[in-house]
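Re: cobalt (II) ion structure - here you go.
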Amino acid sequence: MEKIDNFKEYLAKISRYEQALSLIYWDLETYAPDKSVYYRSKALAELSEMRYNLFVSNKMAEFLAYFAQENILRDLNETDKALIKVADKEFEKIKKIPAKLVRNLAETTANANLAWKQAKENDDFSIFQPYLDEIIRLVKEEADSLGYEKNRYDALLDLYEPGLKTTEVSEIIAYLKENLILFLNKLLEEGKEPRDDFYKGNFDMNKQKELSLEALKFMNFDFSSGRLDTSVHPFTTKIGPRDVRITTKYSTEDLRYSLFSTIHECGHALYELNIPAVFFETPLDEGASMAIHESQSRFWENIIGRSLPFWNYFSTRIKLIFNSFKGLSSKDLYKGVNIVERSLLRTEADEVTYNFHIMLRFEIEEALINDKITTKELPLIWNDKMKEYLGIVPPNNSLGVLQDVHWSNGSFGYFPSYMLGNLYAAQLFSKLKQDIPSYSSDLEKGEATSIINWLKDNIHQYGKMVEPQELIYRVTGEKLNPKYFVDYITNKYTEIYNI
Ligand code: CO
């Protein structure tokens, strides 16, 4: 079958532009000198356009039309069928959104991003509001171009979590609210908050790095296929085959920040690194969705990294690096990384409260996209929902409605992925415990290989071949079920807070 090889060679060509783009992007976020940014951004734009033109070319259309023929498609193997499907979906999506809209969105979001920064700095929502109105107008146009059956917001959700519907997210949220709001109140009113003072302070950067490297060693991160660097916001990027880079940030106030950022990003990296070589330089060489990706990072960060078996091992490692932990037990160290707080910022939220931050964003986005509310009301609606779900009201808009960059980027429909990632992680964990009864004694020995292999066999090896909800069904035998998350949270924190 020669044609399929030609098609893959064509996709590889596109992928090589993407590899160059990723490397420039990574460099901009890490080491590029300030004065290079202007020209480097132009290089990015130029290469993106070349990549885009290759993707929407007549040649691409010819390939896809050829493989759309039933007698041709029938004879392909499963991987190649999935490859055609994924490439076709992306192609159709790009075709549906008018080029003029893409340009308008790019221009508007560039300006909106600056306005958002100014608004946040000056705590003045009115600076950002007109830009947000324009973005919402364009995003609605985008959703209408993409098409949907019932709810316009479905079209946007589908961009990040294929197949997911607004009604499903609403049902999940109703269940979480019902089970977690009262639990949170009880925890904070009746529970005993653990000590965590020993994690606060200005820890030596080199030693913080040593600790991060210790965590990466535990996770079997392969330094011959990746790197660890620093950036303002920690991230993971796949440059190309056998090159997945993560970053962290060393805080001068809290040791936990760099450690858990590193573990989180390495969770993303293991996913990318375990995708099989047959998918390299094709659209299958990435994760199933944003939420499945986040399920991997959250799994390592919270379910493993904030577990007692892990700290039974890791407490000896941390004590070898920092003298100040000598008198503390592994249980003290474990409890100290599991503090629950009513906090204003999503990015600083703990496992118990995190999803509340997502719920209010989802409800606001859905209402905005369907013209149920206006941007003028946003600060008030935001604060009301904060009060209802988290019991606190932001003292200003910078710590409230203006805190996230996403809306200024036009990323509507993205937030639910974070919440779903938490839920998927808990559901996967429940299955993993059944499949690997020795998982906790493995962890206590500092042995993560059994867990890594399980994730590889059940999730990573499929890359983007299987759609997220199908993947979860295949692995766990049921569709996404928020009960696993609620059980995990209530069991864990009932014990830690002694209620
Ligand atoms: Co992440």
